[in-house]
Amino acid sequence: MKFPVSNVLRFGVAAMLCAVHAFAHASDVFPNTKWTKAVSADASGWSSQKLKTADNFARTLNTDAYLVVHGGQIIHEYGNTSRATNLHSIRKSVLSVLFGIHVDRGVVDLSKTLRELNINDRSELTSGERTATVKDLLQARSGIYHPAAYETRDMAANRPIRGSSAPGQRFYYNNWDFNALGTIFKQLSGKTVFEALRDDLAGPLQFQDFSYLVDTKFQYEGISQHPAYVIRLSARDLARIGLLMARNGRWNENQILSKAWVAESTSSYSSLSARTGYGYMWWVGIGDRFYLANFPGKVFSAEGSQGQFMIVDPLRDLVIVHRVNSDNDITRNVNGRQFGQLLQLILDAQIDAP
User: Fold this and answer.
1) What domain range is 146 assigned to?
2) Per the domain annotation, does 244 fall within a domain?
């Protein structure tokens, strides 16, 4: 049976408008006090059988939980996604979001230098080091190689010699930068990182599992006057932050974070490999592959030691969170390659993915 060309075109336009409407509707779905869960993965455009394959592979790893959020609802979850555990270095990406909120409010100026802010440390900073700006620290390009709290053995062993690079000249993943940013944040915003997390994210995004008194702790060490800000979150609460970033800072009808900050903070300022760059405490994909997986557009992630990962894919309105509980066993780990294999299995489960 043949249809007139006009009808074919009409049907095609109608189908396209339906697809646009469906996407727009999906982008309006946000969790309230609880996440909306898909009735079934298959009905939501995912293969439940392939997700089972991903689960089976996760069982061969030290994965404790992972979560797939698509279109603002939970498509699939594995393990205990409600247990709050140490974010490790994902705490830095959380602080990046909090900085953005306060930059938007006009209380944080990224061009301020450490000299202007009167930031120092146990071992006096040099005049050159004090020319580093808040933006330099956000990009891990401060050139300040002072001992820092909560750094790994590798970080301490690989720390460059003091004075070997000028501020802004070189990327070095440096806990001193990240910890000093916590001090600077309190000075400029009037809130600790934890108070801002409670007031500016946990409240508006309606975290389900967060306990302010239990899940926040400053880690002080004698080598530096700037403590690390240790944060514990569950997979499903962390995914709320990922969804906020995937939606360009919008949460329901509220613009929690400006689109400009989301774009600026997730742009790459340091190319670390052919596939990976670094923004303002976010890891940024370069090209169409990231963590061994294929992506159709911009992608960025938060990452912490021992297997903490959060992938944000704004084009597909997709957030994937992976957690390893290191609270009682610091040897538990899922490395980047293992996570990349799991990630590809998860992505393979999306039917007709772009």
Assistant:
1) 84-233
2) yes
CA 97 to chain centre: 9
Residue 144 Rama label (left phi>0; alpha psi -120 to 50; beta): beta
Per-residue pLDDT tens over the stretch 194-209: 999 999 999 999 999 9
User: Which amino acid, one-letter code, is at 287?
Assistant: G
Token pair recorded at residue 83: 């247990």
Whole-angstrom Cα distance, residue 331 to residue 62?
Answer: 10
Q: Which run of H or of E encompasses 10? A: helix 5-26
CA distances from 92 to 301, 338, 339 (A): 11, 23, 20
Cα-based distances in Å from 214 to 5, 84, 191, 211, 231: 65, 10, 18, 5, 9
For the record, the structure tokens of 323 come out as 């957690």
* Residues 6 or more apart in contact with residue 259 via CB below 8 angstroms: 248, 249
Per residue in 234-265, pLDDT tens? 999 999 999 999 999 999 999 999 999 999 99
Statement to judge: residues 98 and 117 lie in one domain: yes
Task: Give the global pTM.
Answer: 0.92
